[in-house]
Amino acid sequence: MRSEDWRKGIEHEAASVEDQAWAREARRAAWGTRWRSEAWALLSWQRLIPVIVAGLLPLSVFVLNLLPPFPGSLLHAVNTFVNLVTSGTSGWLLLLLWVGRYAWLGYMPWLPAAVSAFLSFPMLFFVVAFHYWQTPGEPTVSDLPWLILIRNTLVSFSVLWGFAWAISRLRLGHRRHLE
Amino acid sequence: MPRSPNASPHTRAVLQTLLTAHPAPSYGYDLSRATGLKSGTLYPILQRLHAQGYLAADWETSPHPGKPPRHLYTLTEEGLRLARESGDRGASQLRGALT
């Protein structure tokens, strides 16, 4: 029996009894069972790879700097590609796809949004900060804009949550349509 | 001495309640009322006993229209043995404490 069946078992039990206080407590337990099992499922290395890649995308600049210079004809294409990768667009796209996938699979929308926002954005921030520390005379740890990090992470979480929620509603509509 | 994974007082209480009801199945709500355990404690125990093969869980279609199917829990043969052993162990511990 899967943990999903156990959760349904608790929820159905809560819906079947007349003891409302017990039913409320059982629903809370079912919710706890669900989010814990989904969190454990999401927090595995294989599943987190896209989130980690999104957080580490700025590192591609360092990797490209290590390569031999490109011939003139290729330079424009490479520059466009590097700009696209490091501007955040591809990172965002990757996170949206990741969050959307798990919302479509039936995970609670806030969970993949929280995992991706609280993991990739601080990672991205520290990668960029590390890049600046390589340059002499640049800001130190105490000069880091912590408030910006917190604000941007929370904003990212909200946006990703909204997107995941929209996907989960679409999924619900799709399932109703199939039934 | 290593502790048996099903030796906690809560697990023993669940096993004894299921044993008393056997062969009749029990609902989660009845187990919760009989043992005094909250669902947050009871269901992880039931899940563990089921995963270890001591407990069978089946769906029962509700006779009341509009109500969802409920889970019914019954001890398996292994579960019956475990429940009897845990009852004996509990009784001998109590005797030891009193003498």
Could you characterize what this model shows?
The complex is a heterodimer of chains A (179) and B (99). Chain A is an all-alpha fold and 179 residues long. Helix content of chain A is 81%, strand content 0%. Chain A has 8 helices and no strands. Chain A has helices at 3-16, 20-42, 45-56, 59-66, 72-86, 89-104, 110-133, 146-178. In chain A, helix 3 (45-56) runs antiparallel to helix 6 and helix 7 (110-133) packs antiparallel against helix 8 (146-178). The longest helix of chain A is centred in the C-terminal third of the chain and has 33 residues, at 146-178. Chain A is elongated. The mean pLDDT of chain A is 81. With 99 residues, chain B is of the alpha+beta class. Chain B has helices at 9-21, 28-35, 39-51, 77-98, and strands at residues 55-60, 70-75. In chain B, helix 1 packs across helix 4. The longest helix of chain B has 22 residues, at 77-98. Chain B starts with 8 loop residues before the first helix and ends with a helix. The chains are: A mainly alpha (179), B alpha+beta (99). The interface between A and B is medium-sized, with 20 and 18 residues.
Attribute tags:
heterodimer, A: 179 residues, mainly alpha, 81% helix, B: 99 residues, alpha+beta, 2 strands, 57% helix
Query: What's the main sheet of chain B like?
Result: 2 strands, antiparallel
Which percent band covers the strand fraction of chain B?
Answer: 5-15%
**Per the principal axes of the C-alpha atoms, what is the gross shape of chain B?**
elongated
Radius of gyration of chain A: 22 Å
Largest interface: A-B, 20 and 18 residues
| Rough outline of chain A | elongated
Helix content of chain A: over 70%
**Parts with pLDDT < 50 across at least 5 consecutive residues of chain B:** none
Number of strands of chain A: 0
- Helix percentage range of chain B: 55-70%
Give the termini distance of chain A in whole angstroms: 24 Å
Low-confidence stretches of chain A: none
Helix count of chain B equals 4
The topology string of helices and strands of chain B comes to: HHHEEH
Q: What percent strand of chain A?
A: under 5%
Multimerization state: heterodimer
The sequence of SSEs of chain A as H and E is HHHHHHHH
| Order of strands in the sheet with most strands of chain B | 1-2
Query: Which structural class do you get from the secondary structure elements of chain A?
Result: mainly alpha
